[in-house]
Amino acid sequence: MVAASLALVAALFSASAVFAQGCALCYTDAAATGPQTQAALRHGILVLMIPPMFIFAGLFLLLYRRRNLHRESFEDLPVSLHASPRNTSGIILHLN
């Protein structure tokens, strides 16, 4: 399993598209510009990476905080409301 994961990561990072050189037109166009424009392109790439990173971090934080919500709310119920083989109507739907 570990070897397969390492092979997958190595394959992803060895691809030419990872280094943003897959599009010849984009590469030659960026190479033909001056050093200020090249620096602006590099900064633009970094700026465009920030919102997806915050979205991913926010979703991860939300999932981490709510990971035990269902189990905790189910444990807080009185024993008479817990679902049992005899009581199939004891299933509770939480919409929060």
Please characterize this protein's 3D structure.
The chain is mainly α and 96 residues long. The chain has a domain at 50-79. The protein contains 4 helices and no strands. The protein is elongated. The model has no long low-confidence stretch (mean pLDDT 75).
In short, what is this structure?
This protein has 96 residues and is mainly α.
Blueprint of the fold:
Layout: H1 2-14, H2 24-31, H3 35-65, H4 69-75
Keywords:
4 helices; 61% helix; mainly alpha; 96 residues
**Head-to-tail CA distance between termini:** 37 Å
Largest sheet: none
Sequence stretches where pLDDT stays below 50 over 5 or more residues: none
The total of beta strands comes to 0
Tell me the structural class: mainly alpha
Number of helices: 4
Q: Rough shape?
A: elongated
N-to-C series of helices and strands: HHHH
Report strand %.
under 5%
What is the CA-based Rg, rounded?
25 Å
Helix content: 55-70%
Average pLDDT works out at 75
